Amino acid sequence: MEKLKQSILELITDTSTNLPPDVRRAVNAAKVQEDLGTRAALSLSTIAQNVVMAEENVSPICQDTGMPTFEVKTPVGVNQLIIKKAIKEMIAEATRTGKLRSNSVDSLTGANTGDNLGPGTPVIHFEQWEEDEIEIKLILKGGGCENKNIQYSLPCELEGLGKVGRNLDGIRKCILHAVYQAQGQGCSAGFIGVGIGGDRTSGYALAKHQLFRKVDDVNPIPELAELESYIMETANQLGIGTMGFGGNATLLGCKVGVENRLPASFFVSVAYNCWAFRRQGVRLNAETGEILRYLYKDEEVKMDLTSVVAAEEKEERREVVLQAPISEEQIRSLKVGDVVIINGEMHTGRDALHSYLMENDCPVDLNGGIIYHCGPVMLKDEAGQWHVKAAGPTTSIREEPYQGDIIKKFGIRAVIGKGGMGAKTLKALGEHGAVYLNAIGGAAQYYAECLEKVEGVDFMEFGIPEAMWHLRVKGFAAIVTMDSHGNSLHADVEKTSFEKLAQFAAPVFK
Ligand SMILES: O=C(O)C[C@H](O)C(=O)O
Ligand code: SF4
Protein backbone atom coordinates (compact mmCIF):
# COMPACT_ATOMS: atom_id res chain seq x y z
CA MET A 1 0.00 0.00 0.00
CA GLU A 2 2.88 2.36 -0.81
CA LYS A 3 0.55 4.86 -2.54
CA LEU A 4 -2.14 4.88 0.16
CA LYS A 5 -1.12 8.02 2.04
CA GLN A 6 -0.56 10.02 -1.13
CA SER A 7 -3.99 8.98 -2.43
CA ILE A 8 -5.71 9.96 0.81
CA LEU A 9 -3.97 13.34 0.84
CA GLU A 10 -5.07 13.90 -2.74
CA LEU A 11 -8.65 13.03 -1.80
CA ILE A 12 -8.66 15.43 1.16
CA THR A 13 -7.13 18.25 -0.90
CA ASP A 14 -9.49 17.75 -3.80
CA THR A 15 -12.54 17.62 -1.52
CA SER A 16 -11.62 20.86 0.23
CA THR A 17 -10.63 22.84 -2.85
CA ASN A 18 -12.55 21.55 -5.85
CA LEU A 19 -16.35 21.53 -5.90
CA PRO A 20 -17.68 18.37 -7.60
CA PRO A 21 -19.36 18.68 -11.03
CA ASP A 22 -22.90 17.79 -9.91
CA VAL A 23 -22.74 20.52 -7.24
CA ARG A 24 -21.31 23.01 -9.72
CA ARG A 25 -24.16 22.27 -12.09
CA ALA A 26 -26.69 22.91 -9.33
CA VAL A 27 -25.06 26.25 -8.39
CA ASN A 28 -24.97 27.31 -12.06
CA ALA A 29 -28.64 26.42 -12.43
CA ALA A 30 -29.50 28.49 -9.36
CA LYS A 31 -27.82 31.49 -10.92
CA VAL A 32 -30.09 31.17 -13.95
CA GLN A 33 -33.16 31.11 -11.67
CA GLU A 34 -32.29 34.34 -9.93
CA ASP A 35 -33.32 37.63 -11.44
CA LEU A 36 -30.60 39.73 -12.97
CA GLY A 37 -29.02 42.23 -10.65
CA THR A 38 -30.69 41.09 -7.42
CA ARG A 39 -28.64 40.61 -4.27
CA ALA A 40 -29.13 36.86 -4.56
CA ALA A 41 -27.86 36.82 -8.13
CA LEU A 42 -24.84 38.92 -7.19
CA SER A 43 -24.07 36.55 -4.33
CA LEU A 44 -24.18 33.58 -6.68
CA SER A 45 -21.71 35.35 -8.95
CA THR A 46 -19.36 35.79 -6.01
CA ILE A 47 -19.84 32.15 -5.09
CA ALA A 48 -19.03 31.06 -8.66
CA GLN A 49 -15.93 33.22 -8.69
CA ASN A 50 -14.89 31.79 -5.33
CA VAL A 51 -15.20 28.22 -6.59
CA VAL A 52 -12.90 29.03 -9.49
CA MET A 53 -10.37 30.74 -7.22
CA ALA A 54 -10.31 27.80 -4.81
CA GLU A 55 -9.56 25.39 -7.61
CA GLU A 56 -6.85 27.63 -9.08
CA ASN A 57 -5.22 28.39 -5.71
CA VAL A 58 -5.69 24.81 -4.48
CA SER A 59 -7.03 26.42 -1.30
CA PRO A 60 -10.18 25.77 0.74
CA ILE A 61 -13.47 26.76 -0.92
CA CYS A 62 -14.71 27.70 2.55
CA GLN A 63 -12.50 28.37 5.59
CA ASP A 64 -14.64 25.99 7.64
CA THR A 65 -13.41 22.69 6.31
CA GLY A 66 -15.85 20.97 8.60
CA MET A 67 -15.87 17.63 10.35
CA PRO A 68 -13.89 15.29 8.09
CA THR A 69 -16.16 12.25 7.76
CA PHE A 70 -14.89 9.20 5.89
CA GLU A 71 -16.89 6.21 4.69
CA VAL A 72 -14.51 3.39 3.82
CA LYS A 73 -15.31 0.05 2.19
CA THR A 74 -12.65 -2.62 2.06
CA PRO A 75 -12.35 -6.09 0.52
CA VAL A 76 -12.18 -8.95 3.02
CA GLY A 77 -8.61 -9.28 4.30
CA VAL A 78 -7.52 -5.65 3.93
CA ASN A 79 -6.04 -4.23 7.13
CA GLN A 80 -8.36 -1.41 8.19
CA LEU A 81 -5.99 -0.23 10.92
CA ILE A 82 -3.42 0.77 8.30
CA ILE A 83 -6.08 2.81 6.49
CA LYS A 84 -7.16 4.49 9.72
CA LYS A 85 -3.59 5.43 10.56
CA ALA A 86 -2.98 6.80 7.07
CA ILE A 87 -6.17 8.87 7.20
CA LYS A 88 -5.15 10.43 10.51
CA GLU A 89 -1.64 11.22 9.32
CA MET A 90 -2.89 12.81 6.12
CA ILE A 91 -5.55 14.84 7.95
CA ALA A 92 -2.74 16.31 10.06
CA GLU A 93 -0.63 16.91 6.96
CA ALA A 94 -3.48 18.65 5.08
CA THR A 95 -4.00 20.85 8.14
CA ARG A 96 -0.30 21.75 8.30
CA THR A 97 -0.37 22.88 4.67
CA GLY A 98 -3.59 24.92 4.98
CA LYS A 99 -5.87 22.63 2.96
CA LEU A 100 -7.88 22.11 6.14
CA ARG A 101 -8.49 24.52 9.03
CA SER A 102 -7.55 23.28 12.49
CA ASN A 103 -11.07 22.40 13.52
CA SER A 104 -10.78 19.96 16.41
CA VAL A 105 -11.57 21.67 19.71
CA ASP A 106 -11.60 20.16 23.21
CA SER A 107 -15.23 20.53 24.25
CA LEU A 108 -14.39 21.09 27.92
CA THR A 109 -11.31 23.33 27.78
CA GLY A 110 -11.84 24.98 24.38
CA ALA A 111 -8.25 24.11 23.40
CA ASN A 112 -7.70 23.54 19.69
CA THR A 113 -5.56 20.47 19.02
CA GLY A 114 -4.08 22.25 15.99
CA ASP A 115 -3.92 19.19 13.73
CA ASN A 116 -7.57 18.17 13.38
CA LEU A 117 -6.96 15.05 15.45
CA GLY A 118 -8.59 14.29 18.77
CA PRO A 119 -11.30 12.20 20.39
CA GLY A 120 -13.98 11.75 17.70
CA THR A 121 -12.09 13.59 14.95
CA PRO A 122 -11.86 12.65 12.16
CA VAL A 123 -14.95 10.47 11.86
CA ILE A 124 -14.21 7.19 10.07
CA HIS A 125 -16.77 4.48 9.28
CA PHE A 126 -15.55 1.14 7.96
CA GLU A 127 -17.49 -1.55 6.16
CA GLN A 128 -16.43 -4.68 4.32
CA TRP A 129 -17.64 -5.61 0.88
CA GLU A 130 -17.25 -8.30 -1.76
CA GLU A 131 -15.47 -6.13 -4.30
CA ASP A 132 -11.71 -6.16 -4.96
CA GLU A 133 -11.10 -2.44 -4.61
CA ILE A 134 -11.07 -0.07 -1.66
CA GLU A 135 -13.58 2.77 -1.72
CA ILE A 136 -13.07 5.92 0.36
CA LYS A 137 -15.67 8.65 0.43
CA LEU A 138 -15.16 11.92 2.27
CA ILE A 139 -17.51 14.73 3.21
CA LEU A 140 -16.33 18.02 4.73
CA LYS A 141 -19.48 19.49 6.22
CA GLY A 142 -19.01 22.78 8.01
CA GLY A 143 -20.28 23.75 11.46
CA GLY A 144 -22.66 26.48 10.33
CA CYS A 145 -24.80 24.21 8.22
CA GLU A 146 -24.41 21.38 10.76
CA ASN A 147 -26.03 23.71 13.30
CA LYS A 148 -29.07 23.87 11.03
CA ASN A 149 -29.61 20.10 11.06
CA ILE A 150 -32.87 19.26 12.73
CA GLN A 151 -34.67 16.17 13.94
CA TYR A 152 -38.44 15.82 14.30
CA SER A 153 -40.21 13.28 16.48
CA LEU A 154 -43.63 12.48 15.05
CA PRO A 155 -46.44 13.10 15.71
CA CYS A 156 -45.92 16.77 16.47
CA GLU A 157 -47.23 20.22 15.72
CA LEU A 158 -45.22 22.66 13.63
CA GLU A 159 -45.58 26.44 13.52
CA GLY A 160 -47.42 27.43 10.35
CA LEU A 161 -48.00 23.83 9.25
CA GLY A 162 -50.20 22.48 12.03
CA LYS A 163 -50.47 18.81 12.95
CA VAL A 164 -47.77 16.48 11.66
CA GLY A 165 -48.81 12.84 11.49
CA ARG A 166 -46.80 9.65 11.12
CA ASN A 167 -47.20 9.45 7.37
CA LEU A 168 -45.73 10.73 4.11
CA ASP A 169 -47.57 14.02 4.44
CA GLY A 170 -46.15 14.52 7.92
CA ILE A 171 -42.68 13.85 6.54
CA ARG A 172 -43.32 16.41 3.81
CA LYS A 173 -44.17 19.05 6.42
CA CYS A 174 -41.03 18.31 8.45
CA ILE A 175 -38.77 18.72 5.42
CA LEU A 176 -40.34 22.01 4.38
CA HIS A 177 -40.04 23.25 7.94
CA ALA A 178 -36.38 22.19 8.02
CA VAL A 179 -35.62 24.35 5.00
CA TYR A 180 -37.59 27.26 6.46
CA GLN A 181 -35.86 27.16 9.87
CA ALA A 182 -32.41 27.17 8.27
CA GLN A 183 -33.17 30.51 6.56
CA GLY A 184 -29.88 31.77 5.09
CA GLN A 185 -27.81 30.76 8.09
CA GLY A 186 -26.49 27.51 6.66
CA CYS A 187 -25.27 29.43 3.59
CA SER A 188 -28.22 28.78 1.34
CA ALA A 189 -28.87 27.79 -1.35
CA GLY A 190 -28.35 24.40 0.29
CA PHE A 191 -28.73 20.66 -0.10
CA ILE A 192 -30.59 18.41 2.32
CA GLY A 193 -30.25 14.78 3.19
CA VAL A 194 -33.27 13.32 4.98
CA GLY A 195 -33.43 10.15 7.06
CA ILE A 196 -36.86 8.69 7.78
CA GLY A 197 -36.96 6.28 10.68
CA GLY A 198 -34.12 4.68 12.65
CA ASP A 199 -33.41 5.91 16.15
CA ARG A 200 -32.09 9.38 16.98
CA THR A 201 -28.51 8.40 16.14
CA SER A 202 -29.03 6.21 13.09
CA GLY A 203 -31.64 8.64 11.74
CA TYR A 204 -29.09 11.44 11.58
CA ALA A 205 -26.47 9.06 10.16
CA LEU A 206 -28.92 8.07 7.41
CA ALA A 207 -29.65 11.73 6.67
CA LYS A 208 -25.96 12.55 6.33
CA HIS A 209 -25.41 9.44 4.25
CA GLN A 210 -27.96 10.71 1.72
CA LEU A 211 -25.57 13.57 0.98
CA PHE A 212 -23.31 11.06 -0.74
CA ARG A 213 -25.94 10.58 -3.42
CA LYS A 214 -25.41 12.52 -6.63
CA VAL A 215 -27.47 15.67 -6.87
CA ASP A 216 -29.18 14.56 -10.07
CA ASP A 217 -29.89 10.88 -9.26
CA VAL A 218 -33.45 9.57 -8.96
CA ASN A 219 -34.65 7.86 -5.79
CA PRO A 220 -35.38 4.15 -6.51
CA ILE A 221 -38.44 4.25 -4.20
CA PRO A 222 -41.23 5.90 -6.26
CA GLU A 223 -42.97 7.63 -3.29
CA LEU A 224 -39.67 9.11 -2.17
CA ALA A 225 -38.78 10.19 -5.72
CA GLU A 226 -42.10 12.01 -5.80
CA LEU A 227 -41.45 13.53 -2.38
CA GLU A 228 -37.99 14.73 -3.43
CA SER A 229 -39.30 16.50 -6.50
CA TYR A 230 -42.21 18.00 -4.57
CA ILE A 231 -39.77 19.40 -1.99
CA MET A 232 -37.47 20.82 -4.68
CA GLU A 233 -40.39 22.56 -6.31
CA THR A 234 -42.01 23.82 -3.11
CA ALA A 235 -38.99 24.76 -0.98
CA ASN A 236 -37.86 27.05 -3.77
CA GLN A 237 -41.12 28.94 -3.43
CA LEU A 238 -40.32 29.93 0.17
CA GLY A 239 -38.40 32.95 -1.10
CA ILE A 240 -35.42 32.59 1.25
CA GLY A 241 -32.87 32.73 -1.56
CA THR A 242 -29.10 32.75 -1.57
CA MET A 243 -27.67 33.76 1.83
CA GLY A 244 -31.24 34.44 2.96
CA PHE A 245 -31.36 37.62 0.87
CA GLY A 246 -34.70 36.58 -0.64
CA GLY A 247 -34.92 34.97 -4.06
CA ASN A 248 -35.87 31.95 -6.10
CA ALA A 249 -33.01 29.57 -5.30
CA THR A 250 -33.25 28.23 -1.76
CA LEU A 251 -32.72 24.51 -2.16
CA LEU A 252 -30.37 22.87 -4.67
CA GLY A 253 -30.89 19.23 -3.80
CA CYS A 254 -33.09 16.96 -1.67
CA LYS A 255 -32.28 13.29 -1.04
CA VAL A 256 -34.47 11.12 1.17
CA GLY A 257 -33.66 7.69 2.62
CA VAL A 258 -35.72 5.38 4.78
CA GLU A 259 -34.99 2.80 7.49
CA ASN A 260 -37.17 0.81 9.85
CA ARG A 261 -38.06 2.30 13.21
CA LEU A 262 -39.26 1.19 16.61
CA PRO A 263 -43.02 1.11 17.17
CA ALA A 264 -42.76 3.98 19.67
CA SER A 265 -40.48 6.23 17.60
CA PHE A 266 -40.90 8.03 14.30
CA PHE A 267 -38.00 10.35 13.53
CA VAL A 268 -37.47 12.53 10.52
CA SER A 269 -33.85 13.70 10.58
CA VAL A 270 -32.57 16.39 8.25
CA ALA A 271 -28.91 17.12 7.46
CA TYR A 272 -28.52 20.57 5.93
CA ASN A 273 -25.50 21.21 3.74
CA CYS A 274 -24.44 24.63 2.50
CA TRP A 275 -23.83 25.41 -1.17
CA ALA A 276 -20.15 24.63 -0.43
CA PHE A 277 -21.07 20.97 -0.61
CA ARG A 278 -17.68 19.33 -0.42
CA ARG A 279 -17.77 15.61 -0.91
CA GLN A 280 -15.66 13.38 -3.03
CA GLY A 281 -14.66 9.75 -3.22
CA VAL A 282 -12.07 7.46 -4.75
CA ARG A 283 -11.61 3.83 -5.70
CA LEU A 284 -8.17 2.51 -4.74
CA ASN A 285 -6.14 -0.47 -5.82
CA ALA A 286 -6.23 -2.68 -2.71
CA GLU A 287 -2.62 -3.78 -3.18
CA THR A 288 -0.91 -0.45 -3.87
CA GLY A 289 -3.39 2.12 -2.57
CA GLU A 290 -3.21 3.94 -5.89
CA ILE A 291 -6.24 5.98 -7.05
CA LEU A 292 -8.03 4.13 -9.87
CA ARG A 293 -10.79 6.67 -10.32
CA TYR A 294 -12.75 9.42 -8.64
CA LEU A 295 -16.42 8.86 -7.79
CA TYR A 296 -17.81 12.33 -8.38
CA LYS A 297 -15.85 13.60 -11.32
CA ASP A 298 -17.57 12.11 -14.34
CA GLU A 299 -17.48 15.33 -16.31
CA GLU A 300 -15.93 18.76 -16.18
CA VAL A 301 -18.36 21.52 -15.29
CA LYS A 302 -17.13 25.09 -15.48
CA MET A 303 -18.64 27.71 -13.20
CA ASP A 304 -20.90 30.20 -14.91
CA LEU A 305 -19.02 33.47 -14.50
CA THR A 306 -21.22 35.63 -16.69
CA SER A 307 -21.98 38.93 -15.07
CA VAL A 308 -25.51 39.23 -13.76
CA VAL A 309 -25.67 42.92 -13.02
CA ALA A 310 -28.37 44.51 -15.11
CA ALA A 311 -27.32 48.01 -16.21
CA GLU A 312 -30.23 49.88 -14.63
CA GLU A 313 -29.76 48.02 -11.30
CA LYS A 314 -26.12 48.92 -11.20
CA GLU A 315 -26.99 52.59 -11.29
CA GLU A 316 -29.55 52.24 -8.54
CA ARG A 317 -27.39 50.32 -6.10
CA ARG A 318 -25.59 52.69 -3.78
CA GLU A 319 -21.97 51.89 -3.13
CA VAL A 320 -20.32 53.46 -0.10
CA VAL A 321 -16.65 53.27 0.79
CA LEU A 322 -15.97 52.80 4.49
CA GLN A 323 -12.65 53.34 6.17
CA ALA A 324 -12.16 52.60 9.85
CA PRO A 325 -12.46 54.45 12.17
CA ILE A 326 -15.97 55.11 10.86
CA SER A 327 -17.98 58.10 12.00
CA GLU A 328 -21.48 57.83 13.42
CA GLU A 329 -22.71 60.18 10.71
CA GLN A 330 -21.50 57.88 7.96
CA ILE A 331 -23.15 54.88 9.61
CA ARG A 332 -26.45 56.70 10.03
CA SER A 333 -26.48 57.43 6.30
CA LEU A 334 -26.41 53.71 5.45
CA LYS A 335 -29.60 51.79 4.67
CA VAL A 336 -30.47 48.15 4.10
CA GLY A 337 -29.52 47.25 0.54
CA ASP A 338 -26.48 49.54 0.31
CA VAL A 339 -23.24 47.92 -0.77
CA VAL A 340 -20.19 48.95 1.24
CA ILE A 341 -16.58 48.64 0.21
CA ILE A 342 -14.26 48.48 3.17
CA ASN A 343 -10.66 49.65 3.26
CA GLY A 344 -8.39 49.88 6.27
CA GLU A 345 -8.36 47.80 9.41
CA MET A 346 -10.75 45.16 10.69
CA HIS A 347 -10.52 42.64 13.50
CA THR A 348 -11.80 39.10 13.53
CA GLY A 349 -13.80 37.95 16.50
CA ARG A 350 -16.13 35.06 17.08
CA ASP A 351 -17.43 32.95 19.94
CA ALA A 352 -14.46 32.86 22.33
CA LEU A 353 -13.60 36.55 21.83
CA HIS A 354 -17.16 37.80 22.32
CA SER A 355 -17.55 35.90 25.53
CA TYR A 356 -14.11 37.17 26.70
CA LEU A 357 -14.87 40.81 25.86
CA MET A 358 -18.02 40.78 27.98
CA GLU A 359 -15.84 40.56 31.10
CA ASN A 360 -12.51 42.00 29.97
CA ASP A 361 -10.83 44.82 28.11
CA CYS A 362 -9.76 44.63 24.50
CA PRO A 363 -6.06 44.76 23.58
CA VAL A 364 -6.82 47.13 20.65
CA ASP A 365 -8.95 50.25 20.39
CA LEU A 366 -12.26 49.28 18.75
CA ASN A 367 -13.78 52.76 18.80
CA GLY A 368 -15.25 53.34 15.33
CA GLY A 369 -13.92 49.94 14.39
CA ILE A 370 -15.09 46.90 12.48
CA ILE A 371 -15.50 43.39 13.86
CA TYR A 372 -15.51 40.54 11.37
CA HIS A 373 -17.17 37.30 12.47
CA CYS A 374 -14.58 35.06 10.88
CA GLY A 375 -12.36 32.12 11.76
CA PRO A 376 -9.74 32.09 9.02
CA VAL A 377 -7.28 29.52 7.75
CA MET A 378 -3.84 31.00 8.43
CA LEU A 379 -0.34 29.91 7.53
CA LYS A 380 2.93 31.31 8.88
CA ASP A 381 5.86 31.72 6.49
CA GLU A 382 9.51 31.10 7.39
CA ALA A 383 10.00 34.74 8.36
CA GLY A 384 7.20 34.39 10.91
CA GLN A 385 4.67 36.46 8.94
CA TRP A 386 1.09 35.16 8.91
CA HIS A 387 -0.85 34.84 5.64
CA VAL A 388 -4.59 34.50 5.14
CA LYS A 389 -5.41 31.34 3.19
CA ALA A 390 -9.21 31.41 3.47
CA ALA A 391 -11.44 33.85 5.32
CA GLY A 392 -15.19 33.95 4.75
CA PRO A 393 -17.72 34.98 7.41
CA THR A 394 -19.16 32.75 10.11
CA THR A 395 -22.79 32.61 11.30
CA SER A 396 -23.40 35.76 13.32
CA ILE A 397 -26.47 34.73 15.28
CA ARG A 398 -24.28 32.80 17.74
CA GLU A 399 -23.02 36.17 19.03
CA GLU A 400 -26.55 37.48 19.58
CA PRO A 401 -26.35 37.22 23.38
CA TYR A 402 -23.21 39.40 23.42
CA GLN A 403 -23.18 41.63 20.35
CA GLY A 404 -25.33 44.54 21.52
CA ASP A 405 -23.35 44.89 24.77
CA ILE A 406 -20.01 44.63 22.95
CA ILE A 407 -21.02 47.30 20.43
CA LYS A 408 -21.93 49.58 23.34
CA LYS A 409 -18.88 48.82 25.46
CA PHE A 410 -16.25 49.33 22.76
CA GLY A 411 -17.90 51.81 20.34
CA ILE A 412 -17.94 49.41 17.39
CA ARG A 413 -19.52 50.83 14.24
CA ALA A 414 -19.76 47.83 11.94
CA VAL A 415 -20.17 44.11 12.41
CA ILE A 416 -19.58 41.85 9.43
CA GLY A 417 -20.85 38.30 9.33
CA LYS A 418 -23.49 36.20 7.66
CA GLY A 419 -27.03 35.06 8.24
CA GLY A 420 -28.05 38.16 10.18
CA MET A 421 -28.64 38.86 13.86
CA GLY A 422 -31.66 39.26 16.09
CA ALA A 423 -33.77 41.92 17.79
CA LYS A 424 -31.29 42.69 20.58
CA THR A 425 -28.51 43.55 18.13
CA LEU A 426 -30.89 45.50 15.88
CA LYS A 427 -31.84 47.64 18.87
CA ALA A 428 -28.18 48.24 19.73
CA LEU A 429 -27.44 49.26 16.12
CA GLY A 430 -30.10 51.96 16.41
CA GLU A 431 -29.07 53.14 19.87
CA HIS A 432 -25.36 53.38 19.18
CA GLY A 433 -25.15 54.06 15.48
CA ALA A 434 -23.79 50.84 14.01
CA VAL A 435 -24.57 48.55 11.07
CA TYR A 436 -24.60 44.85 10.34
CA LEU A 437 -22.95 43.91 7.07
CA ASN A 438 -23.58 40.59 5.39
CA ALA A 439 -20.68 39.01 3.56
CA ILE A 440 -21.18 35.99 1.32
CA GLY A 441 -20.84 32.83 3.39
CA GLY A 442 -18.35 30.33 2.07
CA ALA A 443 -16.63 32.81 -0.25
CA ALA A 444 -13.38 32.29 1.61
CA GLN A 445 -11.00 32.74 -1.33
CA TYR A 446 -12.81 35.79 -2.59
CA TYR A 447 -12.43 37.54 0.78
CA ALA A 448 -8.92 36.24 1.47
CA GLU A 449 -7.79 38.18 -1.58
CA CYS A 450 -9.06 41.44 -0.02
CA LEU A 451 -7.15 40.80 3.20
CA GLU A 452 -3.87 42.37 2.28
CA LYS A 453 -1.87 42.04 5.43
CA VAL A 454 -2.00 40.45 8.85
CA GLU A 455 -1.03 43.31 11.16
CA GLY A 456 -1.04 41.21 14.30
CA VAL A 457 -2.89 38.70 16.38
CA ASP A 458 -4.13 38.43 19.95
CA PHE A 459 -5.52 35.47 21.87
CA MET A 460 -3.68 32.76 19.98
CA GLU A 461 -4.48 30.62 23.00
CA PHE A 462 -8.06 30.45 21.64
CA GLY A 463 -6.71 28.60 18.57
CA ILE A 464 -6.36 29.93 15.01
CA PRO A 465 -10.09 30.16 14.15
CA GLU A 466 -11.02 31.89 17.42
CA ALA A 467 -8.02 34.23 17.78
CA MET A 468 -8.41 37.98 17.21
CA TRP A 469 -6.66 38.72 13.93
CA HIS A 470 -5.92 42.33 13.05
CA LEU A 471 -6.19 42.63 9.29
CA ARG A 472 -5.53 45.33 6.73
CA VAL A 473 -8.15 45.08 3.98
CA LYS A 474 -8.73 46.60 0.60
CA GLY A 475 -11.94 46.49 -1.42
CA PHE A 476 -13.86 44.17 0.94
CA ALA A 477 -17.47 44.23 -0.32
CA ALA A 478 -20.49 43.51 1.87
CA ILE A 479 -24.18 44.38 1.93
CA VAL A 480 -25.97 46.34 4.64
CA THR A 481 -28.68 43.94 5.82
CA MET A 482 -29.41 45.57 9.21
CA ASP A 483 -29.17 49.32 9.60
CA SER A 484 -29.32 51.87 12.40
CA HIS A 485 -32.91 52.80 11.50
CA GLY A 486 -34.48 49.57 12.70
CA ASN A 487 -34.54 47.78 9.34
CA SER A 488 -33.51 44.15 8.99
CA LEU A 489 -33.61 42.27 5.72
CA HIS A 490 -33.32 39.04 7.73
CA ALA A 491 -36.43 39.78 9.80
CA ASP A 492 -38.32 40.65 6.59
CA VAL A 493 -37.31 37.45 4.78
CA GLU A 494 -38.11 35.34 7.83
CA LYS A 495 -41.58 36.87 8.00
CA THR A 496 -42.42 36.50 4.30
CA SER A 497 -40.99 32.96 4.12
CA PHE A 498 -43.11 31.99 7.13
CA GLU A 499 -46.22 33.25 5.38
CA LYS A 500 -45.31 31.18 2.34
CA LEU A 501 -44.60 28.11 4.48
CA ALA A 502 -48.06 28.37 6.01
CA GLN A 503 -49.57 28.16 2.52
CA PHE A 504 -48.31 24.57 2.31
CA ALA A 505 -50.23 23.33 5.35
CA ALA A 506 -52.96 21.51 3.38
CA PRO A 507 -52.34 17.76 2.82
CA VAL A 508 -50.56 16.76 -0.39
CA PHE A 509 -49.74 13.07 0.11
CA LYS A 510 -52.09 10.45 1.44
O1 LIG B 1 -16.69 28.15 11.32
C1 LIG B 1 -16.80 28.87 10.33
O2 LIG B 1 -15.85 29.52 9.87
C2 LIG B 1 -18.10 29.04 9.60
C3 LIG B 1 -19.19 28.10 9.95
O3 LIG B 1 -19.20 27.00 9.13
C4 LIG B 1 -20.49 28.77 9.78
O4 LIG B 1 -21.19 28.53 8.78
O5 LIG B 1 -20.86 29.54 10.67
S1 SF4 C 1 -19.44 29.20 6.27
FE1 SF4 C 1 -21.17 28.59 5.03
S2 SF4 C 1 -20.21 27.60 3.29
FE2 SF4 C 1 -18.73 27.59 4.96
S3 SF4 C 1 -19.06 25.68 6.06
FE3 SF4 C 1 -20.23 27.29 7.10
S4 SF4 C 1 -22.24 26.99 6.20
FE4 SF4 C 1 -20.82 26.04 4.79
Whole-number mean pLDDT: 96
Helix segment count? 15
Number of DSSP E strands: 20
CATH architecture verdict of the largest domain = Alpha-Beta Barrel
CATH superfamily of the largest domain: Fe-S hydro-lyase, tartrate dehydratase beta-type, catalytic domain
Q: Mind telling me the C-alpha Rg? A: 23 Å
Tell me which ligands are bound. (2S)-2-hydroxybutanedioic acid, iron/sulfur cluster
Distance between the termini: 53 Å
State the helicity in percent bands: 25-40%
Give me the CATH fold name of the largest domain. fumarase
Q: What's the assembly state of these chains?
A: single chain
Short overview:
The protein has helices at residues 4-17, 21-33, 39-57, 80-96, 143-146, 168-182, 200-210, 222-235, 311-316, 328-332, 351-359, 400-410, 423-432, 444-448, 489-502; strands at 67-75, 123-129, 134-141, 150-153, 156-158, 162-164, 190-196, 251-258, 267-273, 278-284, 291-294, 319-323, 339-348, 370-372, 377-380, 386-390, 414-417, 435-438, 451-458, 468-482. The protein has 510 residues and is α/β, with parallel strands linked by helices.
Give a verbal description of the structure.
This protein is an alpha/beta fold and 510 residues long. It folds into three domains: 174 residues, no CATH class; 131 residues, no CATH class; 177 residues, fumarase. Helices cover 33% and strands 25% of the residues. The protein contains 15 helices and 20 strands. The strands form five sheets. The chain has a five-stranded mixed sheet with strand order 2-1-3-10-11. A five-stranded mixed beta barrel has the order 13-14-17-18-20. It has a four-stranded mixed sheet with strand order 4-9-7-8. A hairpin with a 6-residue loop joins strand 10 and strand 11. The structure holds (2S)-2-hydroxybutanedioic acid (LMR) and iron/sulfur cluster. The site of iron/sulfur cluster has 13 residues, from helix 5.
